[in-house]
Amino acid sequence: MPEIDVLVAPAAGVPGGRTRANADHRRRWIVTLVCFAVAVAAIAALVLTGLPGTVGSKAWTYSLDRLSRHAVAIVLVSVAVGVSTVLFQTVTGNRILTPALMGFDSLYLLIQTTLVFFMVPRDAAVAGGLLSGGLSGFLGQTAIMVVASTALYLWLLGGRKSDIHLLLLVGVVFGVFFRSASTFLQRLLDPAAYLQVQDAMFASFRGVQLDVLLACGLIVVAGLVVVAILGRRLDVMLLGRDPAIALGVNHRRVTIVVLVVVSFLVSASTALIGPVMFFGLIVANAAYALLGTTLHRFTLPVASLLGVIALAGGEMILGTLGVESALSIVIEFAGGLLFLFLLLTNRAR
């Protein structure tokens, strides 16, 4: 994954180098603008195709409100997943590690199952509030996952050289452990409680409340502000721990800040719609391939825009086919194939 273009000095002493660098720079801006235009068109098409024919009627107003919240949720989730995945791959130094592959989605399901298993028999009101799609449930789940995931990431990655094989092995072990614990608890649940857990197993944008969207939006904006403050130190981090320290970057501090931001973004998006294991892997690697660079000022927005295109376009296409709920399954299938391709072709770095 580390590429020398992060220092932006490609043309010095190379015949025609400046011209080529300028052409690459223009091409990346064009790719970014094209992705922005397609993303806006996809969102507009998703909203317009879902509206009933009579403008101004009660059905039209209701549908516009529902589809608008749907579109905002897609944008927030795309930004949160795209940005968090690119940042996570920056501090780990490879292109296949994502928070989901490190067991985050399995941790989410374990938390959901544990809440139902231990709280429903004793305090159904508290458990119902945490598991509902309301603001209290969103904030409660986000807080629990932020604490758990931050502790996990800092223990695995904070201040040490990362070995991809060790990290993958640890991620697989944690994922299996979390899934096994969830399955064990689910087998002890009664059928009604199990249905509550089953609803949390698949991502869905339906029924997102306005106050939850506002809370998620604040978390995403706060994360983007921190990323903007870090600025080009993120690009220097791509060179690796020792070169980054030699260039004056406090590697440990930046790593910790990035992992905390990643925990907030992934927790917020997962609490909003549920787990999407390979979505971040797809949009991040598609951004690298389209741009031909790992510079964050290009990869962060393009990964987010590709997420909007995939989710809005996918929901619109599958909605016309009458299988709208199958989008998360399609994403997992395509992401699984991409993961195997990257692993087998040795393109992890």
Describe this structure in words.
By secondary structure, the protein is mostly helical. It is built from 14 helices and no strands. The protein has helices at 17-50, 58-92, 104-119, 124-131, 135-157, 164-187, 191-199, 210-230, 233-237, 241-246, 251-273, 279-291, 296-321, 327-344. The longest helix has 35 residues, at 58-92. The N and C termini lie close together (4 Å).
Q: Which characteristics define this entry?
A:
single chain; 349 residues; mainly alpha; globular
How is this structure best summarized?
The chain has helices at 17-50, 58-92, 104-119, 124-131, 135-157, 164-187, 191-199, 210-230, 233-237, 241-246, 251-273, 279-291, 296-321, 327-344.
Give the SSE layout:
Elements: H1 17-50, H2 58-92, H3 104-119, H4 124-131, H5 135-157, H6 164-187, H7 191-199, H8 210-230, H9 233-237, H10 241-246, H11 251-273, H12 279-291, H13 296-321, H14 327-344
Helix pairs in contact: 1-2, 1-13, 2-8, 2-11, 2-12, 2-13, 3-4, 3-5, 3-6, 3-7, 4-5, 5-11, 8-11, 12-13
- Radius of gyration, in Å, reads 21 Å
Distance between the termini: 4 Å
Shape: globular
- For this entry, what is the oligomeric state of its chains? single chain
Question: Could you list the spans in which at least 5 consecutive residues all have pLDDT below 50?
Answer: none
- Average the pLDDT over all residues and give the rounded result: 78
As a percent range, the share of helical residues equals over 70%
- Could you describe the largest sheet, including whether it forms a barrel? none
| Share of β-strand residues | under 5%
Q: How many DSSP helices?
A: 14
> Helix- and strand-based class?
mainly alpha
Can you write the helix and strand succession as a string? HHHHHHHHHHHHHH
- What's the β-strand tally? 0
